[in-house]
Fold this sequence. Notes:
Number of helices: 3
Radius of gyration: 13 Å
Order of helices and strands: EHEEHHE
Oligomer: single chain
Structural class: alpha+beta
Helix content: 25-40%
Distance between the termini: 7 Å
CATH architecture: 2-Layer Sandwich
Number of domains: 1
Amino acid sequence: MAKGYWIAHVDVENAEDYPNYLKAAKPAYEKYGARFLVRGGKAEQVEGAGRARHVVIEFDSYELALACWNSLEYQEAAKIRRANSKGDIIVVEGAG
């Protein structure tokens, strides 16, 4: 079964309150077995438009990745993220 991934590109607009999102999202990440492969860190935009922060989260399956996204736990946390940042997020199935 192919793994599932969240790929996010984010500009944090309110760094003071953004940690509240991370804290609120943690139960959903734990429930669905999220593993952070990329979480911020050094990056260089080599082509196209970009954002300041990049995140890649791995799940055991595409279905689990979508279930986490759609969960009540995550959607409550997402309200906090949306209030403090702008971003682009995609849920994608892995190649293998």
